[in-house]
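hey can u check if this looks right to u? its 119 residues, i copy pasted from the old doc so theres a chance i mangled smth
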Amino acid sequence: QVQLVESGGGSVRPGGSLRLSCTASGYTSGIYFMGWFRQAPEKEREFVASIMWNSGSTFYADSLRGRFTISRHSIGSTMYLEMDNLKAEDTAVYYCACQTRDEPEFRFWGQGTQVTVSS
């Protein structure tokens, strides 16, 4: 089991920046991938970015590449999402997720943190 806690959400004006954090606890030695997903009101949850825990290799949704940056601090089991030049359409609940080596998909999820971009 891996427990995930997100922080860093809030309200920002268009063009602003926010940094989200996700701290993992529990079976952190088994982390294979961690990622960010988001869900806007009345929309499906969508992939934002992910990071391979050991190598640090990163993957992004094509539409967000260049504005969002995922990173991790492996010793502290913390993952970050730096979001720049935010737009109104980035408004969503952002979820942290974890895939361990013995699972075929993201199995563990955080509670979510709200990001609101509005003037």
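The CA atoms of residues 15 and 71 lie 21 Å apart.
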